[in-house]
Amino acid sequence: MVKAHPWVLGLTGGIGSGKSSASKFFAELGIEVVDADLVARQVVEPGSPALNAIVKRHGESILDTHGALNRARLRKIVFSDNSEKLWLNNLLHPLIRTEMLEQLARAQSLYVILEAPLLFENGLEKYCQRTLLIDVQLELQLKRTCERDKMTPEAALAIIAAQMSRSNKVQKADDIISNSGTLAALKRKVQRYHYSYLKQVKLHSCADRQQ
């Protein structure tokens, strides 16, 4: 099995929390980011074995006009049939995990970030030395999501309800950034945690050398 980077920070947060902005600020500080959502798209790119398997099961109608996966159509299938959801998860999850670990292992920065909205839901924290939750109150989360994605409060609430509860994430996370303020405030908080993590990486490295 592929061994990930020696020091991985798991970064998570619900929709509208500002997780992507925090990730961008870490990247600006020279930290490489492996995005679990992006990896999930990469494993089903045109020509990939996974996409070929999906087409074999569901036919050419599962593709869009460019030959890429029609995600909306596939989502409709798996949401209405648990057996199809199980089949798809059994196909994709091992591929996503392997690709994700390979990308983490290739990272050259002092530590690397695994960015995943479903970090805790999918048990990905086991690959991390530390986890950081970008937290926001529900009212603000709804407001940001509706404004950014042009959706109704009901649609946004449905997405939030499908994710792990805010209270459970708070209990599981090692570190928490409250993102109820401005982007500038979030950037300052990210910088403070970044320097804290650099110290932890140094201690981790020293401990490894002594073993």
From TrEMBL:
InterPro entries: Depp_CoAkinase, P-loop_NTPase. It is found in: Cytoplasm. It is an enzyme of class 2 (transferase). It comes from the Bacteria. Its EC number is 2.7.1.24. Pathway: Cofactor biosynthesis; coenzyme A biosynthesis; CoA from (R)-pantothenate: step 5/5. It catalyses: 3'-dephospho-CoA + ATP = ADP + CoA + H(+). Pfam families: CoaE. GO terms for molecular function: dephospho-CoA kinase activity. ATP binds at residues 16-21. The keyword ATP-binding applies. Keywords: ATP-binding, Coenzyme A biosynthesis, Cytoplasm, Kinase, Nucleotide-binding, Transferase. Belongs to the CoaE family. Catalyzes the phosphorylation of the 3'-hydroxyl group of dephosphocoenzyme A to form coenzyme A. This is Dephospho-CoA kinase.
